Known about the structure:
Elements: H1 6-11, E1 19-22, E2 26-30, E3 38-44, H2 59-75, E4 84-86, E5 102-106
Antiparallel strand pairs: 1-2, 2-3, 3-5, 4-5
Amino acid sequence: MSQDTLFTKIINREIPAEIVYEDEFSLAFKDINPQAPYHVLIIPKKPIATINDIELDDREVVGHLYYVAKQLASENGFSDDGYRVVMNCNEHAGQTVFHIHLHMLAGKVLGWPPYTDKEKT
């Protein structure tokens, strides 16, 4: 995987982002095209292109992303009402940046299923 993704540039502070959380393993920032009142991307600092590229040794960092989501939900008051956490894999699933990332959405009732009737076919 190329180390030069949009997210790598955000990690390296080469391009700006509205960062809401950072630790040694991960970074979370507001999505520039939010799909909910609260929409952040939670990324590992280690570049992993897709879910298909996750290795056994990556399990702790991937699990850590979910821990960060839980922490952000608690800090922002979404734990009780609920929130959605999604990771897309490859183009047909909507992945546009090939550096794994969780989308965390909250702040409104999120419909289910998360697609329109037109997309079911």
